[in-house]
Amino acid sequence: MRLSKVSRILATLAAAAMATLGLTAVQAAPASAAVRNVCYTTSQAGPFASYAVQAAAIWNNYTNNINMAQCGSNLVISYTTGGGSYAQRTSLGNGRVVIDTIQAQQYSPLRIMTHEIGHILGLPDNYNGNCAILMSGGSAGTSCTNPYPSSAEAARVDTNFGFAPLSATGAEVFTGSWPAPATTPAQH
Ligand SMILES: [Zn+2]
């Protein structure tokens, strides 16, 4: 059977299924899965609320399958002083991000925020020291202020929220991404 014919049959079946559901094919079928909202709240974010908004905008700009908005408390942004920034993912797109105010004076607060949200979106750490990689976290040093995911990281998030997650995206706590910077120069 020619592929074009298969496509026609599939289109007919899809139309029939939609008719059964009472839907009409007003919009063209999207190439990817439906966009999923990731609702976050800054009600506990204190001085980091604006960074959360910026980080959400970055993730929205770099991905196709998610839309971060202040529409609920699936993701709670909060902060602490000491003990380290971390992300506590309860499931994909759900959990809590905690920003350490001390680390935010050493590292870029926006990079910390975008990185920790990356965990909520299903990304693991990748401590390779490369500033172009968002999930390299503190391994790229305090001078690295890049808050943007690489194309591969963004694509992985899209895949996580698409049909088949690439990685384990269930409950997990991510700590230790932002080690205290060395107080003395490295010895050669
Ligand atoms: Zn991390």
Report on this model:
The chain is an alpha/beta fold. The chain has a domain of 121 residues: Collagenase (Catalytic Domain). Helix content is 31%, strand content 19%. The chain contains five helices and six strands. It has a six-stranded mixed beta sheet with strand order 2-1-3-5-4-6, covered by helices on one side. Zinc ion (ZN) binds next to helix 4. InterPro entries: MetalloPept_cat_dom_sf, Peptidase_M7. It is an enzyme of class 3 (hydrolase).
Fill in the keyword field for this structure:
188 residues; alpha/beta; Collagenase (Catalytic Domain); 6 strands; 31% helix; globular; binds zinc ion; metal-binding
Structural topology:
Layout: H1 3-20, E1 36-44, H2 49-62, E2 66-69, E3 75-80, E4 86-91, E5 94-100, H3 103-106, H4 109-120, H5 151-160, E6 172-174
Parallel strand pairs: 1-2, 1-3, 3-5
Antiparallel strand pairs: 4-5, 4-6
Number of strands: 6
Query: Ranges with pLDDT <50 over ≥5 residues?
Result: 1-32
Anisotropy-based shape? globular
Tell me the strand order in the biggest sheet.
2-1-3-5-4-6
Structural class: alpha/beta
CATH class of the domain at 36-156: Alpha Beta
The CATH topology of the domain at 36-156 is Collagenase (Catalytic Domain)
Main sheet record: 6 strands, mixed
Helix content range? 25-40%
Proportion in β-strands: 15-25%
Question: What is the count of DSSP helices, taking H or I runs of 4+ residues?
Answer: 5
Average of pLDDT: 84
CATH architect. name of the domain at 36-156: 3-Layer(aba) Sandwich
CATH homology group of the domain at 36-156: Collagenase (Catalytic Domain)
The distinct bound ligands, ions and cofactors come out as: zinc ion
How would you spell out the order of helices and strands?
HEHEEEEHHHE
Keywords: Hydrolase, Metal-binding, Metalloprotease, Protease, Signal
Signal peptide: 1-28
Pfam families: Peptidase_M7
Protein name: Extracellular small neutral protease
